[in-house]
Specification:
heterodimer; A: 128 residues; mainly beta; 5-stranded mixed barrel; 3-stranded antiparallel sheet; 1 helix; B: 388 residues; alpha/beta; 9-stranded mixed sheet; two-stranded antiparallel ribbon; 13 helices; globular
Chain lengths: 128, 388
């Protein structure tokens, strides 16, 4: 299901990440968070700026999903991981390595590609 | 402040009945609850009803008035939605209303129709309890989310699939006597370990089933119970709610449930008890790892030791603190909007002594119910006590 009407803030983030310019939001007290967001969830500050996301992150935890939702039917089995990039963590599908060899601690870079099932863009974590 | 009495409870059998509508299920649960309570429908002042996926499963919004009608009650009605903690949230509000004197009699409960969606459809519907942009769009399912927590737990505190398997075995054993349970069948550790994987490290038997069902509870003020001579020995004496960031990746801890800890501490303080006073617990074991995180958050086990509680017998029927004597979500079933209210119903009957498993908690006076929404971005905890 491709969205004709997009998602303000989130699509911009995917665009930026595709161009190698991924970012996170930082408030004036230094808390990091992900867009779309108008208020820092940590302290309520409304002074948010876009700061470059660190180029690489580290996988903290992962899973290989064998029973997907219909939107990922043709993608399964696939690995989903949470990776830390400096002050923020992101969730994405792990690519660039056999599913069996994924480990916590692996270094990843953010990338945008499309789902095999829907053709929608989604966030991938590429193992270097 | 009035004590809040559990006057009556009703729970439908949980299971696979795709043709039954939500209103049919809740109607049945409410009949049982009214019969159990001896309270007249005309005395009900409000209906508080939990439901999560009614729009997707039944093309039905605005379910509050519909369910009051199904229960034969002419009173203002509101639906509560907090994912799988929907009816736990409804119970908390009912407790507050009775305590502050606003209402004397409330019908509270919930229902969910799920199996008509099929496994794929229900998996998709459940997934919307996660962050759509950052989690669902990355392919995260609910089993997947709990699997991420399980892997993080193993990495931080140790343990593995075998310890988790004991949680499933225990809860299936507990459901053997519960004729309302979806699975009344014993399983062994090997069955769990050999089952197909859903999201590593969680397999089919680490996961609760997709279920249809409803639960209803009639709550009254102390004054109403006295005036009407109700036999209602169990009261809800503590209530707590905790919250956390929506997306798992935004949490401080990936292997703990701070929202449940917050809710538990609040509920214990509200009731004036401590974790050591708890005789029996019903916790939200949508996946085996969820029970481990819950009992640690409720301080029934030290952090990092909950993983061995079922294996070492501490939470089994004959253990120090039996957990999920109903069979839990794992074996009793998990019609999500009904779950929180069904936990209160199970605990009330366990403490009253008329539950099939009451023999395992003979003399027990204090129970705790833990109901979680999403990956525990919402948590509701209630303390029930015998107040003769």
């Amino acid at each position: 299901m491709s969205d004709e009407i997009g998602h303000a803030g989130f699509d911009d983030w995917l665009d930026a990440t595709e161009e190698g310019e991924a970012y996170y939001l930082e408030c004036d007290r230094g808390h990091g968070s992900l867009p779309p967001r108008r208020v820092c969830p940590e302290c309520g500050s409304t002074a948010l700026s876009e700061e470059p996301l660190p180029e690489t992150g580290e996988i903290e935890t992962f899973t290989v999903t064998h029973v997907p939702t219909p939107s990922f039917e043709d993608d399964a089995p696939y690995a989903t991981a949470i990776a830390a990039f400096g002050p923020v963590r992101v969730t994405g599908q792990v690519v660039g390595v056999d599913l069996e060899s994924i480990e916590a601690g692996m270094t990843v870079t953010p990338a945008v590609d499309v789902s095999a099932t829907t053709g929608d863009r989604l966030l991938y974590l590429r193992v270097a | 402040m009035s004590d809040v009495r559990v006057a009556g409870v009703g729970v439908t059998p949980f299971g696979n009945v795709p043709e039954r509508t939500g209103r049919d299920l809740f109607g049945e649960a409410s009949i049982e609850a009214f019969e159990d309570s001896g309270v007249s429908r005309t005395d009900v002042e409000a209906v508080l009803y939990g439901n999560f996926m009614g729009e997707l499963a039944e093309h039905q919004g605005h379910q509050g008035p519909l369910m009051a009608e199904a229960a034969g009650v002419d009173a203002p009605a509101t639906r509560y939605e907090a994912a799988c903690a929907s009816s736990g949230a409804a119970i908390r509000d009912a407790v507050m209303r009775i305590r502050n004197g606003e209402n004397d009699v409330i019908l509270v409960g919930g229902a969910e129709r799920m199996t008509n969606l099929g496994t794929a459809g229900a998996t998709e519907a459940l997934a919307i309890a996660a962050d759509d942009l950052w989690e669902v769009r990355a392919g995260m399912t609910f089993p997947g989310a709990y699997a991420l927590m399980a892997q993080a737990y193993f990495r931080e505190y140790g343990g593995g699939r075998e310890e988790l398997a004991h949680v499933a075995v225990k809860n299936h054993d507990n459901a053997l006597n519960n004729d309302k349970a979806q699975y009344q069948r014993a399983i062994e550790v090997a069955d769990v370990l050999e089952a197909p994987l859903v999201s590593t490290p969680l397999g089919l038997y680490d996961s609760c089933p997709i279920s249809d069902g409803a639960a209803a509870v009639v709550l009254t003020s102390d004054e109403y119970a006295e005036e009407h001579g109700l036999e209602a020995p169990v009261s809800i004496t503590g209530s707590g709610q905790g919250g956390d960031r929506m997306a798992l990746h935004d949490r401080e801890h990936l292997a703990r449930s701070p929202a449940a800890r917050e809710a538990g501490e609040e509920a214990y303080a509200d009731a004036g008890i401590s974790a050591g006073d708890v005789d029996v617990a019903e916790v939200h074991d949508c996946f085996t790892i969820a029970e481990v995180l819950a009992i640690e958050a409720l301080d029934l086990e030290p952090v990092g030791e909950g993983i061995s509680a079922a294996r070492d017998g501490r939470t089994i029927a004959g253990g120090d603190t039996p957990v999920n004597l109903s069979g839990g979500l794992k074996a009793k079933g998990h019609p999500v909007g009904a779950t929180g209210a069904s936990q209160v119903a199970e605990l009330a009957t366990l403490l009253r002594g008329d539950h099939p498993n009451s023999e395992h908690v003979d003399g027990a006076t204090t129970g705790v119910a833990h109901n979680a929404g999403g990956t525990v971005a919402s948590a509701l905890v209630h303390v029930l006590e015998v107040r003769e």
